[in-house]
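Records of this kind hold a single protein each, on a pair of labelled lines. With that in mind, the following record should read easily:
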Amino acid sequence: MKYGFVRTATVVPAIATGDCNKNASEIVSLCKELAEKGVELILFPELCLTSNSCGDTYLHKLMTEKCSEAISDIAEATKALEPIIVFGAPVSAGYSLYDCAVVMHRGEIKGVVAKNNCRNTRQFCDGDTLTAGSLALAGQEAPVLRNAVFTTGRYSFGIEIGDEASSPVPQGAILAMNGAEIILSLAATEEFADSNRQTGNRIEEQSRRYKCGYMYACSGWGESTSKGVYAGYNAIAEYGHIIAEGRRFATTSQYTITEIDIEKIANRRKGDSNFAAAGNTAYIHIRQEENGNDDICRTVSPTPFIPECDEERERRFEDIFMIQATGLARRIEHTRCSTCVIGISGGLDSTLALLVTEKACEMAGKKASDIIAVTMPGFGTSGRTYNNALKLMQSMGVTIKEISIKDACMQHFKDISHDIDKHDITYENSQARERTQILMDIANQSNGIVVGTGDLSELALGWATYNGDHMSMYGVNASVPKTLMQHLVRWVAGKSKDEAIRSTLLDIIDTPISPELIPADNGNIKQKTEDLVGPYELHDFFLYNFIRNQFAPEKIQFLAERAFKGTYDAETIKKWLSTFMRRFFIQQFKRSCMPDGPATGYCNLSSQSGWSMPADMNGTIWNENCN
């Protein structure tokens, strides 16, 4: 598939305990159905050819013979199918029986991987006792493998079975460090209350630790219920997140299809010495024709900075807010400052910064009145933002100063011979620098520090006046993107017991984003940032995929068209993506000398703790890739 995607499927077949022929027929039927859907890698559960419940009948010669015949039938029936098929089966070698995963492609057995942790059963031997290099199976000479990594040239995978996934040194960890980009986990585990949540957490955590895609398939309907129930859970995860999962307790065969992004996995592993030796691994090569599909079926979130789960969102927002506040509290303590000085515009950025500053002062043992909040009306200040700024400051009990910048700016225009009716970049930036000068001087007067309000989205676009709002003594919002900021302020509003504060915060969230540097239109906002540089929801999507995932603009465009389908057309996305790339590279000089500030996530453009790039970096190859 395009852009490094691999279409995968985890399958839970409805089986008949002990009936190899019927189970093989169901496996073949499902493989044919999935092949028509363009699936490239198919995973079935542990021992699904027989079921996991056959007990001592596994040891009967008739059972092993029928298993071998069933494997042969699967091979014959899938000769024309392109997907790689991995299924569980008991395999006999000498006087021993092994719990194995059979890897098959176009009817050829590419490998047999034996489970190594079989201490809880007397029927199967540990895989490390299987020393032969190959064995006769289903009329083929099948390679016997341990710690094997299979590769198609486009993606690689390794296999763990059952308890190997939860051992002190999980098999998947070894395989990932040997270069496996996808871990296939075959399981046959009975369901207990809450065990599914624990399994899901383990899948997410191991896919995060291994920096891999992770496929999990567990036995379901048709398994014996003599001792317990098999719920048939199956899921596919990618670097710490389950991206697709099946329904438990289904009474028919079921499968889950989605794409795993191999490029993202490879990018995550770059620079990590744990994976440095992966290129030295001896791979088992499988020549697989590439799926020609140009599209993907997985969901692409338009808000990658915002968790989809309510519980996770709550945790994330609290963590970010406390990181911001703790960072500032430590700076207050270190500098022994008496006050925190902050400019309040009635907009989103300064609102979040004020809320963070209030919490930081509380942590540092200071009062709300130690916050000097300065509103500085200018030529473009609207009645809505001005009133919201005043209401918020009054409700919070901070020290309020109101200083108009109009006279100072008019004097400055006169000094530099600038026409006040010429509303150009000089007209706008002089206002931003005047406001910064006021804040800095008040900080000097009050033994204070200036708290910066600029956010991550503005830093990415360079949408800040150099040595104006670009500058502060500690920038608390520097790693918080605009889309996340809206959610954070709403989260604080939801927790506030003060109705005045809550209603003001909600109105600020609903106010159009504006620098308010162009004269207002009858008191209303005339200058809207998103009309000038583009929608922040698009730019934050571009930012995340460019910085965090290290994707090229062409792939970002591909993903954005799916994430924002019905909201923005392809040409609109392309237009603003080009704007993002152009501005990102030419505005690096502002990020090279930005103030200190706390990193709240992995997307961080600080030259000290996040992004590293020379200010004169040529962005031609990225700009050209947009077209």
User: Anything to note?
Assistant: The chain has two domains: 2-285, 310-625. The chain has a mean pLDDT of 93. The longest strand covers residues 84-93. The chain is about 40% helix and 20% strand.
